[in-house]
């Protein structure tokens, strides 16, 4: 008899089946059998159907819900969308030229331009659409989230469109622009006197007090399924599959989703292997990078993935990457090692120059968490993590509108003018060369 379900959840620990998200939420987003907070969504449609959704015949613009049969929603009528996912994947030959000049490496470099996502300008819009749609379908009216900023902004936009209530707890270092955007959608935002860890603690207390569901964090199966569509987009829009994936790292849902997608699609033979995961943290909040470096210095001894530091109240200029308590590290780090990748940190004080460079070369205005991806590419090149023939995918995860204060850092210093004598001609090429020279300092 054919299975009438479109999907179900399968516990990652005991393999128990959870019939739907209704039961998942009734069990406090845990396996009813063993209590694990990790579950994979399993679809009843044959995985071969993916082939009908990708490739040269599907290159025209398509959004997230092009993959409806492989997203955890039963009824299309419940889709909450803002055309998220309709973003370009650009070839950035100027970085290829840089790799060739600097290291003699021939590689191809692509930028997945999530800064171009219309709803809120980040790749969190993928998650926002799926979460809002699922909550609407199963009848949840109130939702609580702790966020460094971007995910709360996205959730506020999509839950508002779904007619649902959001309570967002953000740390004290989140930007006022993010706080304002959450509030402008008519949702409730609480700025916590403390760091992201404290925001998560208060969000949990609030959710328990009012019996509201709490956003489940980096292992949330809704978020993982949403971000898994990034991999499907590579297969749909690119003529070659990435050998390296570089992303800014805060919690880790993105690489977890890429790894799940690779496991599921491996039988189709659409690519040779999972990309090497190179994940980049700010040097001012880098618990996973620091733990990774320590483990590598000891040749990854038994149990290495269970040891990591916790940084409270990190003093960082990039609050969206300020996850000081890296709970996903024990799961994420072994995936990175399996892929042959790295977890690294980059000097956050250098990211403004990188953002200026990208804006100058490609007219792309990116936020600080996206600019640190470029820093990760530069550092990976310098440290020998990139190889001849690599196909490198850069996740440009946010645009500049997410961080107006960051744009102010990129203002070229000017002086007040009184006459034309104070207005010399400008040599843009020289300015561009200065940005490249700063890259090498």
Please tell me about this protein's structure:
The chain has 14 helices and twelve strands. With 441 residues, the protein is α/β, with parallel strands linked by helices. The chain has a domain of 215 residues: Rossmann fold (3-Layer(aba) Sandwich), CATH 3.40.50. The strands form three sheets. A six-stranded mixed sheet has the order 4-5-12-9-10-11. A three-stranded antiparallel sheet has the order 2-1-3. The protein has a three-stranded parallel sheet with strand order 6-7-8, with helices on both faces. The longest helix has 17 residues. The mean pLDDT is 94.
Features of the shown structure:
three-stranded antiparallel beta sheet; alpha/beta; globular; Rossmann fold; 13% strand; 441 residues
Q: Give me the count of strands.
A: 12
If strands are numbered along the chain, what order do they take across the biggest sheet? 4-5-12-9-10-11
CATH topology type of the domain at 89-120 and 227-409 = Rossmann fold
Largest sheet: 6 strands, mixed
End-to-end distance, in Å?
66 Å
The helix count comes to: 14
What is the CATH architecture assignment of the domain at 89-120 and 227-409? 3-Layer(aba) Sandwich
Structural class: alpha/beta
Strand content: 5-15%
Order of helices and strands: EEHEEHEHEHEHEHHEHEHHEHHEHH
The level 1 CATH classification of the domain at 89-120 and 227-409 is Alpha Beta
Characterize the overall form. globular
The unreliable regions are none
